[in-house]
Protein: Glutamyl-tRNA reductase
Amino acid sequence: MFIFVVGLNHKSAPVEIREQLTFSESTIGKALDLLYSEPGITGCAILSTCNRTEIYGSTTDIEKGLAAVRRFVTKMGPLAIENFANYFYTHTLYDAIRHLFRVASGLDSMVLGETQILGQVRRAYQLATEHGVSNSVVNTWFQQAITVGKRVRTETGIDQHAVSTSYTAVELARQVFNDLNGKTALILGAGKMSELTLTHLIANGVSTVLVANRSFQRAEELAGRCGGEAIHFDKLEERMHEADIVISCTAATHYVIRRDMVERVMATRKERPIFFIDIAVPRDIEPSVGTVGGVHLFDIDDLQNVIDQNLAERSKAAALAEVIIDQEINDFLKWLNSLFVVPTIVALKAKGEEVRKKELERVLGRMKDLPEKDQKTISALASSIVNQLLHDPITQIRHYAASPDGHLYSEILQNLFGLAISGQRAKGKSE
Structure:
């Protein structure tokens, strides 16, 4: 049994190509059924996210399996695989194992070490099993990939260092306050960055949210999505004293929050600190605000410095993750190669026994008067010769079973001895 992955991602194809081959929850079932119905596919799964679409499969004939994928891609939409061949990548056997393990670990993501991809791999596996298109090989492959993804995150902490602007802002706030539970956040601006930051704040325990924007309607829309309160922009100073965290990301060309405003606000807070984060360019918050007592001010450059440090930490963690993946690949490869090696050994022994029996019958048929004791001696001699001849090939194939090329040695042995084993035939790229 051979495994493969064919796909495209954010590194191999631009979005205008990727969007031509995507599957939603409502369409992926039909796609799985169609793929599984193709001759040559014995098990499959499809991983489809905003950054990648990948077809995972197992086959008894690698050429037929890859041809099946090409037919499937052509049937699924306007994307003719031959016209976009440069955008697709194909991995088989050892490289396919490594690819899925790296994907599940977040090492192949746009954001190194992202956590969301592990859940997406798990969901792809669930959908394949729910639709009855997986098999023991695909099941074991994905189960171990999920285990690898968990192990990498647990042992390396690769996802513990924030590398997005919005999440880093929240991490800095948590460092200032230790715990964000029960805190109040004031968001200036109602754009995408403000919404992302707000989402992270709420996920980390912020209980009260105030949203201010020059367009009150947009403030109401954002506040409504997160259960917060919209406030009029001209009430900003009046309500700021309620906030523990102020995050500003407007399109203003001048300072929205000035030092004198903050001094008046802090005078009413009785030394309770405020954490300001200025994500805007040009800046929304006057830099001297950071010198006011009780104020913690960070701008976009401060955040970027933290992000750079965290990326360096993630890169260190990624190096450790690769070591873990190598270990896990070897374990999976031993199991996968045993699917080739064990039947090969059984067939080789059967071939030896067939030759021994045939030749004994031929020789002893000519020596019918030979005493039974001598017949047994000749039979034992024939068995000994066959066993000794097969001992080294069997020993070596067991040894090579643990190597990346174990399946190839099995094929060579099958060809040399003329062994016919159902479900094991490879051509082309597997060679």
Q: What stands out?
A: The first strand starts at residue 2 and ends at 9. The mean pLDDT is 88. Strands lie at 2-9, 43-48, 52-59, 89-92, 184-188, 208-213, 229-232, 245-248, 274-278, 295-299. Residues 334-430 form one domain.
